[in-house]
Amino acid sequence: MMSLFAVAMMGQQAVITFEKTEHDFGKINEADGRVSVVFNFKNEGMAPLVLSNVRASCGCTTPTWTKEPVEPGQTGTITVTYNPNGRPGRFQKTVTITSNASEPTKKVYIKGEVIPKQAKPVNQYKLEVGELNMKSRVLDLGTIKHGEKASGELEYTNLKKEAHKVELATNGQTDAFLIHQITLNEVKPNEVGKFFFAADTKDSKLYGPVEVYAYVVVDGKKDLSEPYRLTIKANIEEDFSNLSVEQKQSAPIIEVPAELNAGKFAAGKVHKFSFPIKNSGVNPLEIRRVYCDDAQLTAKAAKATVKSGKKGAISVDINAKNLKPGSYGREVVVITNDYLNPIKRIKLRFDIE
User: What pTM was computed for the model?
Assistant: First the structure.
């Protein structure tokens, strides 16, 4: 008797059915904003259907639904809206529906993939270069084997309301580096142009870390100050990969002190100091470059070539005019064609009194 009563009561309940319980938005653009889908449902029971609560699994998903009782045989809707702002990538969200239906809890699902919006130029190009803006004023071409080429680019844009003319100027320091191309000589508002730079080291005498400069000229106004300066950097290395066994056996060998104490010097003057360099190999030792890690010191080789078994000298000028009294440790770098030790770093110590 109770079983028949229970069946009778169930027959008088609301029954909720959905046309679909899942929706795939596919790929949506973050920049386009919110997207929505409508889930249609029907009351196939014998009593009015009331949705007491519809809850999303996160705050980025907002449901709205039919609040009035849905009579038997009638339909209602649940609209689910997803906000993709700040949420790039794939997503899958759940919406839980609570009602007085025979199945009191039902779930519907949404999913998709958010394509991130492009950053606004004002957010990317933060460096002001006159009337233009740039992401960076430094282009590092990395390590280049001597004799090879390398190239790179720096972007610029116009965030102003008027068009501007763009040119590049150099200070004559173009050995190994050539300006290749400017894509936009007149850049309109929100347009993006590029400075292309190419480095060809085939005929260059530069070795080691190199910096050369170009200057952005806007509307014909040439300014050589830092905000307009573009720095193109590279590290040029000699290529020893093709040396034969015979060439390696007869290669030059550099001998130079690893550490030197230059002594004591009086403040306010320029002092000279030198140290020996020897070639204990067979072929001539070619001194490619000598430099210091401090602008107050300059170094050079007495001779660019040191023959087998002979000695040369590296002279260092110490400018003590801008150095305060105290003990100093600096580094002198010698680059040669010794394939085993092409870069020698000599620690130089001295005192200023």
Answer: 0.63
